[in-house]
Amino acid sequence: MKSSTLLTESQKRALASICPGDAAVFTPEETLVYGTDASRRFAPPAAAVRPDNLEQVKELLAFAQAERIPILPRGRATNTVGDCVPVAGGIVVSTARLNRILEIDPDDFVAVVEPGVVTGDLQAAIAPQKLFYAPDPASVKFSTVGGNAATCAGGMRAVKYGVTRDHILGIEAVLPGGQALTTGGRTHKNVVGLDLTRLFVGSEGTLGLFTGLTLKLLPLPQATATLAVAYASIDTALTAAGDVFRAGILPVALEMLGYEAMKAVAAISAVPWPADAGAALFVRVDGSPEAVAADVALLTRATAAAGPVWTERAVSPEAEENLWELRRLLNPASFKAAPDKISDDVTVPRGKLREAAAGIKTIGEEERVRILLFGHVGDGNLHVNIMHDAANADEHARAQNARERILMRCLELRGTLSGEHGVGLSKLPFLDRQLDAGQREIMRRVKAVFDPAGIMNPQKAY
């Protein structure tokens, strides 16, 4: 497989013929943006293409396999682990023009979409029909369904509704060599054969390129409400999070913001919590209006035992949106907190959250780095942003030490290196701490069935 960032003139002509007009670009100026993603890593691609139909994708992958040129699938490049960075050179394939909602069926409760559809746009399109697509990553307003599928994105509603793979009934993908593969279907239950759909979802673009996805829809909940509660410390907030479950409540979302995360948001936006609050929980419930009212009352009682220093209820869509927008501001706020960050999304068993948070705090203090701790504590998923100045060699080394110590501590607690961001390039150096050589070899053998020449997103994931 070629790893050069250069293509021959004949290869360029072939690509321009497959993706005509402005759909194929080759100059460094035109391809620059396609060399990076939200990880802020960069490598120059040989070319970038924007196909707009299945036949173009089939021709493209037949050409790429024949020429042994790497293929890099790309949605909106919101991933933080370097999944879209073309470290082996090759052709970046943007799904920006594969962005059509093909079907919404309120009787089958399915939608069929192309991979470039923005997740938030899909949710807005189906809401007037009282339908609901549950996955809700923080990047929902600009990430794509295909990108969410490639990484099996989680998000804030995963506590109750599960992650992206739980809502994909079938896929259409093109394999290297140009073969179109259709898996799954429109039924909400299907146990015939191996589950190739679930294999593809979360494969980080290493098996094939999505061209269509059949999605499971749900009835739109009649009502929602949010309770926001602040406490003196992260440990107290996590105790209260456990009290929510002990009270018999399964919330839609259960999010936590630690003190440093709250400070970062307060630096770019007005916030309702007191300045000395050490952590906050955001809890959302949904259902009928009567059930939501009862759940909010039960939530209020359940979270009171830990001694909140601030409480706010939001029962109107506008009031709820104001609270949840503060949670979504964390990513842009983090980039104001320091020049650089290391972003991880460790997950531990729910019962180990307090130990994990305490360990992360201690490591941050010992390594003298600022850590923004927040995340989806309802399913044990902690986001750890290690803020630092990478231009300062000593500070960068301390941040890297903190990262490795945090990852290893979470594995000691029987957790995982990633709950929803994936492996990409970022987690590869630590992968053998979680997966043994036998597991990784089996994964490589599975990949070889779909991608015998190894052109799909090489040097990533496993």
Key descriptive features of the protein:
462 residues; alpha+beta; five-stranded antiparallel β-sheet; 16 helices; 18 strands; 35% helix
Structure description:
Strand 8 (168-174) and strand 9 (180-184) form a beta hairpin. With 462 residues, this protein is an alpha+beta fold. Helix 8 (234-246) packs antiparallel against helix 13, helix 9 (259-266) crosses helix 12 and helix 13 runs antiparallel to helix 14. The model has no long low-confidence stretch (mean pLDDT 96). The two termini are 18 Å apart. It is globular. The chain has 16 helices and 18 strands. The longest helix is centred in the last third of the chain and has 20 residues, at 393-412. Helices cover 35% and strands 21% of the residues. A 7-stranded antiparallel β-sheet has the order 15-12-14-13-17-18-16, sandwiched between helices.
| Low-pLDDT segments, ≥5 res | none
Distance between the termini: 18 Å
The helix content is 25-40%
| Major β-sheet strand ordering | 15-12-14-13-17-18-16
Please tell me how large the radius of gyration is. Answer: 22 Å
**Mean pLDDT metric:** 96
Shape descriptor reads globular
- What characterizes the major β-sheet? 7 strands, antiparallel
Structural class, by secondary structure, is alpha+beta
Q: Count up the helices.
A: 16
Record field, number of beta strands: 18
- The portion of residues forming beta strands comes to 15-25%
